[in-house]
Design brief:
Keywords: Glutamine amidotransferase. It contains five helices and twelve strands. It is an alpha+beta fold. It has a seven-stranded antiparallel beta sheet, covered by helices on one side. A five-stranded antiparallel beta sheet has the order 5-6-7-8-12, with helices on one face. The longest helix is centred in the first third of the chain and has 12 residues. It is 16% helix and 29% strand. It starts with a strand and ends in a 5-residue tail after the last strand. The model has no long low-confidence stretch (mean pLDDT 94). The protein is globular and about 45 Å long.
């Protein structure tokens, strides 16, 4: 399982990365899942005005390797960070570290386990559920995501998974998907939290008091797809 955080608007990158570190180390864990620490790698996608999207991935724990990434020097109005605890021991390492990428310019981050997503692609078996979920939810070459269609695809998955919480990013904008399977065993763990301040919106897997007091956060309604369009550049 994993932790996600997305920030859009006017923010300081060190504030958001510090929040991601807190979640990855279990400092803000207040949920119903025994997994507290997410140390099996991390990744980020951000937008640099005039340069487009940039991404970084590292198989080391975020707290140990953030300083060695480009993020501390980044200037951006959009940032998404993913910290990972691999569902399967065989799926550790850089190959499985998010963001997952594709030649059509999409980046993808997932928190959850959807072992039946391969069936939606007509495959014989699953090799890596998050990759299969990526290709199932965002068809190759897609110009964007339709919220109703995306949620319909998730509802149509055969039973066996728990959450489709995800961040999908391409050149024109980003989408945050909040969806959990019916009667999921750890609903609090998969609840997404939203913080809205003047000029800034943050969505995270947990309330992060370092960003704002708990009273300023609100749970994102289940079955939600948010769109964060990027400004067109000359």
């Amino acid at each position: 399982m994993c932790r996600l955080i997305l920030a859009s608007g006017d923010f300081a990158v060190p504030d958001i990365t510090a929040a991601a570190v807190d979640m990855s180390c279990g400092r803000t864990a207040d949920h119903d899942n025994p997994t507290k620490v997410h140390a099996h790698g991390w990744g980020a996608v951000w937008r640099e005005p005039g340069r487009g999207l940039r991404a970084h991935a590292d198989a080391r724990p975020l707290a140990d390797s953030l300083h060695a990434s480009p993020l501390p020097e980044a200037k951006t109005d959009f940032l998404a960070v993913h910290t990972r605890n691999a569902s399967l021991e065989s799926q550790r390492g850089l190959r499985f570290t998010h963001p997952l990428t594709r030649d059509d310019g999409w980046y993808f981050m997932h928190n959850g386990y959807l072992p039946t997503a391969y069936q939606g692609l007509g495959l014989a078996a699953s090799e890596f559920d998050s990759r299969e979920y990526f290709d199932y939810l965002v068809p190759d070459g897609a110009a964007g995501l339709d919220p109703a269609e995306a949620l319909g695809k998730l509802d149509a998955l055969p039973p066996g998974g728990n959450s489709g919480n995800a961040i999908a990013v391409h050149a024109a904008g980003a989408y945050l998907v909040h969806w959990s399977a019916p009667a999921v065993a750890t609903p609090v763990f998969f609840t997404m939290q939203r913080l809205r301040l003047p000029g800034l919106e943050v969505v995270a897997s947990e309330v992060v008091p370092g960003l704002a007091p708990a009273r300023q956060w609100e749970p994102l309604p289940a079955g939600t797809v948010l769109h964060f369009p990027f400004p067109k550049e000359a």
